[in-house]
From TrEMBL, chain A:
It comes from the Bacteria. The chain crosses the membrane at residues 52-74, 86-106, 112-134, 141-159, 208-237, 268-288, 339-358, 365-384, 396-414. It is a multi-pass membrane protein. Pfam families: BPD_transp_2 (PF02653). It is found in: Cell membrane. This is ABC transporter permease. GO terms for cellular component: plasma membrane. The keyword Transmembrane helix applies. GO terms for molecular function: transmembrane transporter activity. It comes from Streptomyces palmae. The keyword Transport does not apply. Keywords: Cell membrane, Membrane, Transmembrane, Transmembrane helix.
Amino acid sequence: MSATTVKTATPAVSEKARPRMSFAKGLLLLAGALVLISVVSALVSSGKQPAFYTITSSGQVAAALSMAVPIGLAGLGGLWAERAGVVNIGLEGMMILGTFFGAWAGYQTNPWMGVLAGVLGGAVGGLIHAIATVTFGVDHIISGVAINILALGATTYLAKRWFGPLADEGGSPKQSPSVDDIKDFTVPGLSDWLADIEKHHWFFVSDLAGLIGGLVTNISALTILAIALVVGSYFVLWKTSFGLRLRSCGENPTAAESLGVNVYLYKYAAVVTSGALAGLAGVFLALVRSHIYNEGQTGGRGYIGLAAMLFGNWRPGGLAMGAGLFGYSDALQLRNGGATVHALLLLVAIGLALLALWKLYRKNLVAAGVNAAFAAGLIVWYLASDTVPNDLVSATPYLVTLLVMAFAAQRLRMPKADGKPYRKGQGK
Amino acid sequence: MHALVGENGAGKSTLMKILYGMQRPDEGTIAIDGETVELHSPADAISRGVGMVHQHFMLADNFTVLENVTLGAEKLYGIGAKARAKIMEISDAYGLGVRPDALVEDLGVADRQRVEILKVLYRGARTLILDEPTAVLVPQEVDALFDNLRELKSEGLTVIFISHKLGEVLSVADDITVIRRGTTVASVEPSQTTPKQLAELMVGSELPSPETRESTVTDIPMLTVDGLTLCAVDADGMRRAVLDDIALTIRKGEVLGIAGVEGNGQAELVEAIMGMRTPDGGTITLDGRDISKLPTRTRREDGIGYIPEDRHRHGLLLEAPLWENRILGHVTEAPNSRRGLLDPSGARRDTERIVAEYDVRTPGIEVTAASLSGGNQQKLIIGREMSHHPKLLIAAHPTRGVDVGAQTQIWDQIREARREGLAVLLISADLDELIGLSDTLRVMYRGRLVADADPATITPEELGSAMTGAAAGHLETAEGPEEDR
Amino acid sequence: GKSDSGGGDKGVGLAFDVGGRGDHSFNDSAAKGFDKAKADFKIGGKDLTAKDGDTEADRYEKLASLAEAGYNPVIAVGYKYNASLAKAAAKYPDTNFAIVDSVVDAKNVTNLVYTENESSYLAGVAAALKSKSHKVGFIGGTSSPLIKKFAGGYKQGVLDTDPKAKVDVQWVAPDEKGFGMPDKGKDIADGMLSNGVDVIYSAAGGSGAGAIEATAGKKGAWSIGVDSDQYNDPGLAKYKHTIMTSAIKNVDVSVYEFIKSVVKDKKPLTGTQAFSLKDGGVALTYTGGFIDDIKPKIEAAKKDIIDGKIKVTDTYKD
Amino acid sequence: MTSHDTAGASASWLRRIDKERVVLAVAAPVLALAAAFLVTALVLVATGKEPFNAFSVMFDYGVKSDSMIYIANKATTYFLAGLAVAVGFRMNLFNIGIDGQYRLAAFFAAAVGGALNLPGFVQIPLIILVAMLVGAMWASIAGLLKVYRGVSEVISTIMLNSLATSLITYLLVDGRLGVLDKSTNVISTEPLPSSSHFFTIPTGSGLDPVWGFIVIAALAGIGFWFVLGRTRFGFDLRAVGRSESAAQASGVNVKRMVITSMVLSGAMAGLVGMPTVLNDTHMFTADFPSTVGFTGIAIALLGRNNPVGIALASMLWAFLERGANRLEFEGYDKEIVGVMQGVIVLCVVIAYELVRRYGLKRQQQRVGAELAAQAKKQEVAA
Ligand SMILES: Nc1ncnc2c1ncn2[C@@H]1O[C@H](COP(=O)(O)OP(=O)(O)OP(=O)(O)O)[C@@H](O)[C@H]1O
Ligand SMILES: Nc1ncnc2c1ncn2[C@@H]1O[C@H](COP(=O)(O)OP(=O)(O)OP(=O)(O)O)[C@@H](O)[C@H]1O
Ligand SMILES: [Mg+2]
Ligand SMILES: [Mg+2]
């Protein structure tokens, strides 16, 4: 070895702040997307323009929001549990409990009692999960799967017994009688004004008006509650000592225990809250998205909520984005079918092409090549067809989610002790 | 300042955990300040002014220092600005140099240790328990730690600490308790005892020494590493070199020791040689064959034995029985498999042999690896690796957390292997071990081999200061081993 | 199944499709005929319900256990029973079977099928006449052959009446779940309405309720019900002022007639009994009086279909 | 996922059997089943139904010979689904995508089978091969995404399930890969030629035969056991499941192993639909049984990811479903069986965990006690 002098080495640890998908960055990205839509819709032939207009229409945005809320709430449930170290694959079952008890109590009394009952129903599901995983130390996934089976079994059984005889009120073994509406809100004046602007299809301005319009027109009280819960969860989990303790149980429960934190208690609290949130997601499906309990109503949204949480890297903002993305693309395909999804092809292609350029600039040739190839493929598809076949349109939200996950490479930062069994007094 | 010594599994940690309320005693009493107390949980202990720094750090990696410190003590100063100010105040008062907003994940061992101590002080502890605080520190850091502790002592705090390093125990403790298999066997005063006596009290045998006698170094190169460079993307998305142009040669019969503060690339060097990481440049040659591009499995088949730094993460399947652990890493080799199929009976038979030969204390080979104590797990790993007659043995911290009895055995085995012409790459934080066993010493600092030294002449203190980057080049002008080129 | 009338013949056996009694749709319609027959002829009976994930073996078991226990006739509601009914009919040659919506070629099986495309055609005529925007919509539960029969007939009816009109056809989901998603039905209808569609016909089971709800929220828009007269559906009472008409399928009538032919007349209906516009097996309702103004045109179309002047397609292509 | 494998059959196996362990192993499921029945009985009583009659109806009916045949046939499918899930679980991969994989595989296999008319001994293996290939390819998407893009397999397989549904709906259309029978309203793939019908095992006059595919399923189970328990590859796979880091250090290419096991899991999923296609319907219809993949998760978990356990669990599941059909006939709500299934899974896993923990404690105590004894002896000797 010839080194006789110490060379100035790179610092082992740099002190820079960790990059995060900040709120500001998200807004910027959204604005960019809006501009892109405006530009493209101004450029395509007039026959194709309506398909682009619907992409930012207020109806689309409102529908996207209402589709995103149950997914986001379920995801938030997942977040609470996993931040305390308990994987909750039983969200689906807890949502089912929410739909059932929400509609049952809502029908018996009033919708707000329904909300309460649904949340309680979900919380009971959470409690069972907590007993199994925290007290008995059962594998979290097994317990979750069992709860999904149990919740489905119990509600179908009870629905048949309780709703079956209510045929005159519209009940059936698979469906509850309808429940009254939960109040919704419209910002007076603003909503109409925005709707007016939207109609003119002005460059960018109308797109923005559609976006905001969708967010201020006929917003259900539960939607507002859901948004508040996302923000509130962030606040509680990251800005309070309760949250600190709860998260510590997901990162290093033995350490938490050694500092006098009652880990079991916090895990219980987190998992029960998780169930309650999933229950609320179910209530939203039963009482806002429709007015009834309906067997199979959750349709796997619990799992999708879980996916949204993973998508969002175990953070409330991220999971809201994941839920939003899924809700948006689901609403898009549902409301407007093939033509609009067809328009989306072009937008995604352009987006990918831009991403390819960025990768090229960063000298990541492989990624640039892959992105460019996908972009080219989509453009060819767009040009070669007029619409996306109706039978394929239903795939949109799933495909979009998968593609976004695949292209947005990310470093997952799951809580360190997530899913690991923990026993009191066994730390080494 | 009270020191507690004893062999592995003597019950030191268990006793301390009882003092800290993490475990409940079956009988007996605990008195704090003359008052008999009953501790049901750490919270009880904390409220009575007992604080503990555990043998294995109790820190959440994804949390900031601030979060780690305030956790569980939010009532004192909240979790915000007031807490931050308090942390800075304590840190400054005792010269701990702790930064509240750093992520623990990014901290080195010594820094983590200080965070642990700060955690205890923050809670206003009057009795401080430190379980093996020095095991992972270099001498300078140990000195700094003891300076801190003395300062605390002078303020009237009581410090209880546990250590396997008898020298330091004798130099800093005011009182020493020796325990063995769960009972106190002696209470001694440091001034009236010697390390030798202490060791005898502990294990009933003589204090071992890692001293290597005659040199067995040949001039046939076994492992040659040249220009090895490895970059990694850190948390900030910045690429930086964790291994920077590493060059070294280990000959048959030679033990090459690498000294360095943890986190300076030793682990990465080992992983690169093992093929667990793909380097960005450089070549690795084993016994004349270029293995740079070969997968880990082939490298192992070609004769690399591996005693990993973290046996739980890299050396064992904790939930699997011993005989399956004997197969791990050598599944393609006899006696573990024949023609693609496992040979469980062959593996079982050989496991029995290893258990007997290497004195693995276990009632049988069907018990899970997890039910063995750490020292016995280590012996099993060493037995396994040596059974395949490696050409090169990579030994990372082979005696970490292992008591003096087992240490002797392990050192003997390394020496034995070396005599048979094995090349050994030794990485250790225990500088006595490093100096005692090695034929050649290298110092690693920030991904580079910055210095070399002759184990015959260097002292741990000199080596320690080189490890912190204070010196470079050849550390002694006295005649040392030949340069590689 | 309460206590059955004793003796060898226990009465009627009936196996519902998924959804079963209380689905406010064709299962309920079958139940109505079944209940009426039981009451009128003072016989016993037992009904069983399919569940999601049932296999051939499960369906066969239902039919076989009914026949085995001595129920006669045995009626299978839904085309899914096709294969299992064929098997059961062979095993129990002395039992009279009937299947709704499908055809099984066996001596002891009566096939009760309906020309849903014809009633849907009339729905299309009504939609085209009532639409002001010349844009109408169709929402199907899923793109199964049966539902495509509805879609095809409807589209043809619309275009024959108003060639300039646009028909927006959408499916709720790619599988059977699409029949139980009222919320998604609502979203689809909402999307159609905001694109200017002002009449929506949905053949989507429970999901249709959502579409009807959405349509009721838009001024001047109409919905068209399906299978039963949804104007009279208690669950939809709130929206009935916008349910312009329903394309009904009188499963109850055919089930009743079949039971009667076996139990009372002792001369079972045989072969394929197609219930069409001609015999009132399918029809367009005038309840509520919303389409009374265009009744002549609808009746004319109906006559043309019955006379064979209009040949209604029985499938739909995108 | 905790995976527990049975010790193998070597000459000294008898020695290793430990009476206590056997008792514990049997105790867990027995206790759990008893608890599950108790809970179900309580639910029945609470809703005003007589429980014991319900159970006796289920048991009496469940052991009738035609019920046994039903159970054997249905369990064949469930067993394969459980195995497919277990391959992933054994190495900590949560493949929720069995559902999509097996439906897509069955669809393409049926389509290929319907399009060809080769001798059975060529065509049947070909159909099975197509199914395994399609299943493997669909699953490999999730594997590749995980390895190269870091996408959690939980997300990707959920999405791929729905994509499979859409794809099948798109292709199963008159003029694409479907044929429509207008009179029956059934859309399906072209039916298989009768030469491609799999053999059946006759069971007696008037009774349905047992599907011959049960033989393939048994072979798959043995193959599963052999590959995982007796080959180097299986050892590597289990090693990854137990500790990814230790496996990597031991020389396993973990990334490749992720893809390989996803592919294996998918190939196994491809088999799930085969008993139905080859032995039963001989075509793929739009109402091809779905959600079997999800049932497979419960069954794999109940069977502790080991073939014998999975076989027992799948038979239990089939038995319960058979019983459900009968319960309805006897005037009970068959939905109670859903409650039963959920309670059973929960009770079984809790019982297993308690027993496991007890066993571990016993083992540690024994290790400790024996070591102490050894040490004493040494001391005395010294
Ligand atoms: N409840 C118990 N009763 C008796 N023995 C036990 C119990 N729990 C653990 N043991 C035994 O104690 C040992 C556990 O080893 P552990 O890792 O705690 O040892 P250690 O003292 O840290 O040793 P080392 O220093 O070698 O790591 C094993 O031999 C285990 O069988
Ligand atoms: N409740 C218990 N009953 C019996 N044995 C136990 C119990 N708890 C711990 N042990 C065992 O007692 C021994 C003492 O372990 P302890 O960790 O205290 O040792 P130690 O002296 O700190 O060793 P080391 O030097 O390795 O840290 C271990 O073998 C441990 O597993
Ligand atoms: Mg200790
Ligand atoms: Mg230890």
